[in-house]
């Protein structure tokens, strides 16, 4: 089982590593991935963990909070008939009296009741009856998606408001301190005695550190207690130590200490204020970086026109039920995944496929909830609602992709694991070196003063040592390292979703740009998969061919293979097909069954050989003739005697040749692996430009071919229809499943292309390249920043406040750089 949880309290990469480590050590957890950017934990766990609260306790012990749905089921009812607060109170009381109800809350304005019940106790019918007994009407509302959107927006709003409040409170205290400090330092203005100044500044700094900065302190304490120090530890040590210098200075002015210590209490307030400002900007930027989910969640229509008892009525989309009939007019959104039963329309499916050109829909076609009807009116039957809807499935896939990891992240994780302890050691060595050997650094300070205006010199050795080590503490930034990969992956997966490319596993993004060979399936991938019977040849004229072909159609109707569908379409005259007994399918070969008293077998040459059915020379000759034309040959036997053969031909997709050419120009090798005959496969390969062909291969043989390529050092991507090619898609380093609209083989590949257009393969490669480029840029700047800035702080050239500003700027830069990825197009580069 896999579930995504939200985690509160994470501030940097050290935090996410600590949460991930604690979850992975929990009993029953197979794997846990924690994403700092989205503040989520994707946990794959055994079904034995029935109480998610166990996971929450593990994370709590690490010092953080895992949001776990309360033990109970949430039901939402639409209440009608309420007019005042007394009405809502009466409904609420009636619901709370139902056995099994944990709590009920009724909102008069929205006319909704939210009821939490113990699982397997109170049913929806029990709740509705209680409301009706109280004199009102109620109906269940399935608003899973709307709840997701509201919860996401509420969660982001709470984080944003909290970060903004802390920032403004900190600056309300810090700005007067800064004005006072600079007034004295620059203009020589002195308000009151030194003791009074130190008292006010120390009090103000303490207020900033212990009120808006309290979360940073508690985070530091928890992470230190669990021996996994994070960035909060660096900020907490820096600000608290600075505050202590102010207190020590007060002690000197009060005559309690004999040695004067330079006070950094004002700097402590400034460091915390800039730290909280960085958090605010980062929170805002990270919220925008996750816009992909919000965009998807806002696509759903709010209302629907439904026909009930012959009457049109407007209802909330959440009230729709499977099987109901919808009326959709021009300009309206399709309310739910449905099947057209009457009328014709043009639908803009850009939100699903990234293709802006409208698609014509007629009776029998499926339309997807959230797409826009641009022309024509239709009636449609609802097929899927709530969690089963296409849109919700896409949201789920995007969330899982954003919560996963790419292999390159392991590098940052390893560094992050030791980053804070190393920085603490460097700060300690810096302090001791400056204190013990001040003369060693003095020339550096004098040189720095000529070029850097904020360099402080002339301080006592102890104060100078503190100044340099303080700058080291606050300049270090594991946060940027932790955000480098997940923010780019978050934006990249969102960009892919907007273009009809769904990333199931984050590692596919990295592996795809490492691929050397792209292997294609033929039918439905390079070709349209719309086989047509072009020739039928009967070799035993004594048999009643019409009846035999009707039997073949009956057997093929039990198969989902395109060949079977083509034969049924060719033979079917509208009359009922005869009954079939003892049906069996031979994967990659064909089908057989009993119709009447005849054992009918239809399949390729491999099936005939399996059944030991001899092929006369005249049959072989005709088959060679058809195959030389690139056609697929199917043999038909009755009671183990060959009586007929037919030829089918598929059409190459219009874009196939240009796509294969683009792939070659991008530096990849291509191969086709198919179960079709060698001659037919070679004809398609010649038409598309594919470099090599492996034909007449069963699914298990396709896997062996991919294994051989991998043994030879090739990194393989497999492109297939996602169902018959599932084993090969799983074997490849990257499995790319072609889907169409709502028919997505979600479990087949690591990348799913919603539209069957092969151009999406090139777009997926481009997405991989630009996302990985962005990740490398982020990691470079995160590493470069620390490598450059830490030595500058060690030699005393970095003011602690500027160090904190630079630290916050590095994280903001990483998030901003990732966000720019969302403005890219996926045209071939």
Describe this structure in words.
- The protein has 829 residues and is α+β, with helices and mostly antiparallel strands.
- The protein is 50% helix and 19% strand.
- The strands form 6 sheets. A 7-stranded mixed beta sheet has the order 18-30-29-28-19-26-27, with helices on both faces.
- Helix 15 (461-475) packs antiparallel against helix 27.
- The longest helix has 44 residues, at 144-187.
- The protein is globular and about 120 Å long.
- The protein starts with a strand and ends in a 10-residue tail after the last helix.
- Mean pLDDT is 81; it is low at 741-745.
Concise summary:
Helix content is 50%, strand content 19%. It contains 28 helices and 30 strands.
């Amino acid at each position: 089982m896999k579930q995504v949880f939200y985690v509160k309290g994470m501030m940097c990469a050290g935090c996410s590593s600590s949460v991930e480590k604690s979850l992975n050590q929990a009993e029953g957890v197979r794997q846990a991935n924690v994403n700092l950017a989205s503040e989520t934990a994707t946990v794959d766990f055994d079904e034995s963990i029935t109480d998610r609260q166990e996971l929450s306790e593990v994370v709590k012990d690490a010092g953080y909070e895992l949001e776990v749905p309360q033990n109970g089921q949430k039901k939402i009812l639409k209440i009608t008939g309420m007019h005042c607060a007394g009405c809502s109170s009466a409904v609420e009381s009636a619901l709370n009296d139902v056995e099994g109800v944990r709590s009920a809350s009724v909102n008069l304005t929205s006319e909704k009741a939210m009821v939490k019940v113990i699982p397997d106790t109170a049913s929806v019918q029990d709740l509705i009856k209680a409301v009706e007994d109280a004199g009102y009407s109620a109906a269940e509302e399935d608003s899973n998606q709307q709840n997701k959107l509201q919860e996401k927006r509420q969660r982001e709003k709470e984080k944003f408001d909290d970060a903004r409040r802390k920032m403004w409170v900190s600056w309300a205290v810090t700005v007067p301190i800064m004005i006072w400090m600079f007034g004295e330092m620059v203009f020589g203005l002195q308000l009151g005695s030194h003791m009074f100044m130190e008292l006010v500044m120390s009090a103000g700094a303490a207020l900033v550190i212990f009120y808006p900065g309290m979360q940073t302190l508690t985070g530091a304490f928890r992470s230190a207690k669990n021996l996994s120090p994070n960035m909060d530890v660096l900020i907490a040590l820096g600000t608290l130590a600075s505050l202590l210098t102010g207190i020590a200075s007060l002690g000197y002015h009060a005559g309690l200490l004999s040695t004067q210590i330079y006070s950094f209490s004002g700097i402590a307030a400034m460091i915390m204020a800039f730290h909280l400002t960085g958090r605010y900007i980062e929170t805002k930027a990270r919220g925008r970086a996750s816009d992909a989910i919000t965009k998807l969640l806002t696509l759903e229509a709010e209302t629907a026109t439904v026909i009930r008892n012959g009457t049109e009525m407007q209802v909330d989309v959440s009230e729709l039920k499977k099987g109901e009939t919808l009326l959709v007019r021009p300009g309206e959104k399709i309310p739910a995944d449905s099947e057209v039963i009457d009328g014709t329309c043009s639908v803009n499916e850009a939100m699903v496929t990234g293709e802006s050109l409208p698609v014509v829909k007629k009776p029998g076609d499926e339309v997807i909830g959230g797409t826009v009807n641009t022309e024509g009116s239709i009636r449609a039957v609802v097929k899927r609602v709530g969690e089963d809807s296409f849109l919700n499935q896409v949201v789920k896939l995007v969330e899982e992709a954003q919560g996963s990891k790419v292999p390159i992240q392991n590098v940052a994780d390893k560094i992050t694991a030791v980053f804070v302890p190393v920085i603490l050691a460097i700060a300690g060595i810096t302090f001791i070196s400056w204190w013990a050997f001040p003369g060693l650094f003095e020339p550096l300070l004098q040189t720095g003063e000529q070029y850097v205006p904020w360099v402080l010199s002339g301080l006592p050795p102890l104060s100078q040592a503190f100044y340099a080590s303080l700058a080291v503490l606050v300049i270090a930034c594991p946060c940027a390292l932790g955000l480098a990969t997940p923010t780019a992956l978050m934006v990249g997966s969102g960009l892919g979703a907007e273009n009809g490319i769904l990333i199931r596993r984050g590692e596919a993004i990295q592996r795809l740009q490492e691929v050397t060979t792209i292997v294609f399936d033929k039918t439905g991938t390079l070709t349209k998969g719309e086989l047509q019977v072009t020739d039928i040849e009967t070799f035993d004229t004594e048999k009643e061919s019409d009846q035999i072909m009707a039997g073949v159609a009956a057997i093929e109707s039990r198969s989902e293979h395109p060949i079977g569908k083509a034969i049924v379409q060719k033979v079917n005259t509208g009359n009922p097909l005869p009954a079939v007994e003892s049906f069996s399918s031979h994967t990659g070969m064909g089908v057989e069954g009993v119709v009447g008293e005849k054992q009918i077998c239809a399949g390729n040459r491999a099936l005939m050989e399996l059944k030991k059915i001899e092929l006369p020379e005249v049959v072989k000759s005709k088959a060679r003739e058809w195959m030389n034309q690139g056609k697929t040959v199917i043999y038909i036997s009755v009671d183990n005697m060959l009586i007929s053969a037919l030829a089918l031909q598929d059409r190459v997709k219009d874009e196939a040749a240009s796509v294969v050419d683009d792939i070659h120009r991008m530096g990849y090798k291509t191969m086709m692996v198919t179960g079709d005959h060698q001659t037919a496969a070679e004809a398609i390969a010649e038409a598309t430009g594919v470099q090599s062909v492996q034909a007449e291969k069963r699914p298990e043989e396709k896997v062996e071919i991919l294994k051989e390529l991998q043994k030879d050092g090739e990194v393989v991507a497999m492109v297939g229809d996602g169902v018959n090619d599932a084993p090969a898609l799983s074997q490849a380093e990257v499995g790319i499943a072609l889907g169409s609209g709502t028919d997505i083989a979600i479990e087949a590949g690591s990348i799913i292309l919603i539209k069957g257009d092969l151009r999406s393969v090139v777009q997926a490669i481009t997405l991989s390249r630009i996302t990985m480029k962005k990740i490398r840029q982020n990691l470079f700047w995160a590493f470069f920043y620390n490598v450059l800035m830490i030595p500058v702080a060690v030699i005393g050239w970095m003011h602690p406040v500027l160090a904190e500003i630079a630290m916050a700027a590095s994280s903001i830069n990483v998030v901003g750089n990732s966000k720019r990825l969302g403005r890219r197009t996926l045209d071939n580069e």
